[in-house]
Task: inverse folding
């Protein structure tokens, strides 16, 4: 007797087994999600990163989840909805994972209540976030990351710099066209040259109403890839880009006004970094410098543009559509 026949002759009902594993409440929620998605997405499958359809589906996800008042139920509903987005619109799902999941997760792990305004703004659709760890020359080997952040005592600011091409933040999703804010990991130095270690910052990289990069920030989209084309992958570099002291996510390590560096808990700092990245590393391996990275650089090095030329390198229709949707969600400026 074949295994298929054995399955067909099982004495229990598959529906009962699913209820035992997932609970009837969860399955009822899934059924409601499927009904709602069937109305909107029947016959649709989106493969185009940064398209108007992707952006509209991203905001549809936010609108749908935000209608739920109970926070615990909202999180469960959002997780289930995301599962179906991965099948229906992988491009929108990539935006959701980077902006709503990883960006928010990183701020909650490393930040304080002073930084809560950022993930609340993501939930309201006012900003789009991403996570920037990987560099062109350095993947998961964080000790070798080269992006620098120097604290200026007299200005009470940090200055971000990309000292070489290998230090460019590369392959981050949402960077190419859409992200307005990024969690950027950088090597921290004091004004006198003292090295303090790798720390995370929440960094505004584009105007949230125009999607133009700020002066001192340059970006480009990596365009079509051999594999996963649903992600809005890009390259991000800094040139003497100043951010306020409050941009440092300082739950475990902080800089004093006088230029001192204080670490609250060494072990917790490294553990939090692992916990933030575990979802990312499960989803895909971080890239290291290889032939593909070098080839990508030569293909797209001319597309790293300052804000004045930004609009010429991207889909104007998708860009304007995203601006309209972002403006629709804006309530108060961040």
Result:
């Amino acid at each position: 007797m074949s295994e298929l026949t054995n399955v067909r002759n099982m004495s229990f009902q598959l529906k009962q087994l699913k209820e035992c594993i997932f609970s009837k409440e969860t399955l009822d929620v899934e059924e409601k999600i499927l009904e709602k998605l069937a109305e909107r997405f029947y016959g649709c499958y989106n493969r185009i990163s940064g398209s108007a359809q992707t952006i509209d589906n991203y905001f549809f996800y936010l609108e749908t989840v935000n209608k739920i008042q109970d926070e615990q139920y909202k999180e469960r509903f959002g997780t289930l909805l995301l599962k179906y987005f991965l099948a229906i619109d992988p491009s929108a799902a990539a935006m959701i994972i980077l902006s709503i999941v990883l960006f928010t997760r990183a701020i909650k792990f490393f930040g304080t209540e002073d930084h809560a305004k950022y993930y609340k703004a993501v939930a309201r659709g006012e900003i789009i976030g991403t996570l920037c760890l990987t560099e062109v020359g350095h993947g998961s080997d964080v000790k070798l990351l080269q992006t620098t952040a120097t604290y200026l005592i007299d200005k009470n600011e940090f200055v971000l710099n990309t000292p070489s091409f290998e230090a460019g933040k590369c392959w981050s999703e949402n960077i190419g066209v859409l992200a307005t804010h990024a969690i950027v990991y950088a090597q921290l130095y004091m004004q006198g040259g003292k090295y303090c270690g790798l720390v995370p910052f929440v960094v505004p990289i584009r105007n949230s109403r125009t999607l133009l990069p700020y002066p001192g920030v340059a970006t480009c989209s990596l365009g079509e890839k051999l594999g996963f084309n649903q992600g809005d992958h890009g390259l991000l570099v800094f040139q003497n880009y100043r951010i306020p002291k409050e941009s440092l996510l300082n739950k475990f390590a902080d800089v004093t006004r006088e230029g001192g560096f204080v670490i609250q808990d060494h072990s917790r700092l490294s553990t939090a970094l692992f916990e933030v990245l575990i979802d990312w590393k499960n989803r895909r391996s971080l890239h290291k410098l290889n032939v593909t990275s070098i080839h990508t650089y030569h293909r797209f090095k001319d597309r790293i543009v300052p804000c004045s030329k930004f609009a010429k390198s991207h889909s104007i229709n998708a860009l304007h559509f995203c601006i309209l949707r972002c403006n629709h969600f804006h309530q108060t400026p961040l």
